[in-house]
Amino acid sequence: QGSLTQRDLDDRMAEPWFDPQGFFLAVRDGTLAAGRSAFADRAVVLAADRDALLDGLAAVERGEDSPSVFLGRTGTGDRPVAVAFGDAPVAPGAARALHAAVPEFADTLDAVCARLEPLLAHSPLDLLLADAPETGAARHAPTAHAASYAFGLALFRLLASWGVRPTAAAGRGPGAVAAAVATGALDEDGAARLLVALAGGGEPLETVVAGLTPSTAGAALPPLDARHALNASDASDSASASGAGDTGSPEPGSAAYWTAAWSLGSGAAPAGAVVLDLGGTPRPAPETGTEAADRVALAVTGDGTDAVTAALARLHTLGAAVAWDRVCGDTPRRLVELPTYPFQRTGYWLRTPLHLITAGTTAGAAAGNTAGTPAGTTAEAAGTPAG
Q1: Is residue 111 within a helix (H) or strand (E), and if so which, with residue range?
Q2: Which residues contact 188 (CB under 8 A, 6 or more apart)?
Q3: Sheet strands (E) in the chain
Q4: Which of the residue ranges 66-80, 92-106, 181-195 would you say has the lowest mean pLDDT?
């Protein structure tokens, strides 16, 4: 806690006697992640070996961010997180590395894609796990949108299982449907049919919307992103897409609502929230004007576990809650001994002059010696030697 303490810790870890084996044992066993308190000043260093670790610690001392060093300062309490699902096309094979490395993610992605595959001409899972850079599925718009939706939703649930619990969700295109599922407004079966209809395949949109049960249609749907309607260049598109015109916003859950959410976006981020972008191009969060420094990008074209780890590191340094003990895995762990936080070498005793301390001690002793002695009786008369 505090930059001076952080520099002291960095210096101690860089000493020749520093035991890298013990340090990496601490990392592996989760001591640094789950066995220490999270303070206002935060730093995360991602490193594969001792040299990379020491380079990262040196960057922390200089106060420099890098692709493997994340610095931040936050207030008390955990900051809320809002997730923004993107609408960017998914690159073939985008999920392959993560699917192979994280079984929980693989199970979720398989289950989401299994609901979509009967409705599509191509498998979104095959697109996400493809080896080739170009596939026929990537050129099939409904399948590409389905893959973007499935990948974003699987990432969302993986991060939620690691303690990142968003309080709000937003999205555009397939991300608008994912946001509705994330907030609990849509079940996955209805969302799959709705997604394919919005992407231009499957059943007519009106038929799908009419088939959604009242409990999943409109009660907790994210609000439409009205910011685009305030833009002169988008005003006509906004009115025609939403069907609002002079009659107000479309009814939540209606075909007009979903058409507007697909083209314009839906959802809002609470004030002070950290915005987690799951794919797509980051843009200001609706209703907050959140700056880029308060956003964490996890692109759907991610490079496996490295991109997810970096996103968790950035969320932590921005003040969001991360359950590091879950991130470290379910294998048995033990806490290993680490150096205590060093003192900052500043005095904390009362700086009272010595002669005042001596005088106070003498006065106290005199008071104790004369206690109980009758008035007018000297200490010597009472049997106490004088001097």
Answers
A1: helix 103-116
A2: 112, 115, 181
A3: 41-45, 69-73, 81-85, 168-171, 274-278, 295-298
A4: 66-80
Cα–Cα distance for residue pair 203/27, rounded to 1 Å:
51
Q: CA 8: distance to chain centroid?
A: 28
Please name every residue paired with 85 in a beta bridge, in sequence order, or none if there are none. 171, 278
- Which SS3 state, helix, strand or coil, does residue 182 take? helix
Q: What is the pLDDT of residues 130-141, one digit of tens each?
A: 887 666 666 788
Note the pTM of the prediction, 2 decimals.
0.73
Whether the predicted pLDDT of 311 surpasses 80: yes
**Nearest CA to 325 among 34, 15, 8?**
34
Report the C-alpha gap between 309 and 73 in whole angstroms. Answer: 19
Q: Which two tokens stand for residue 83?
A: 């997730």
| Separation of alpha carbons 352 and 355, rounded Å | 9
Distance CA 272, CA 319 (A): 11
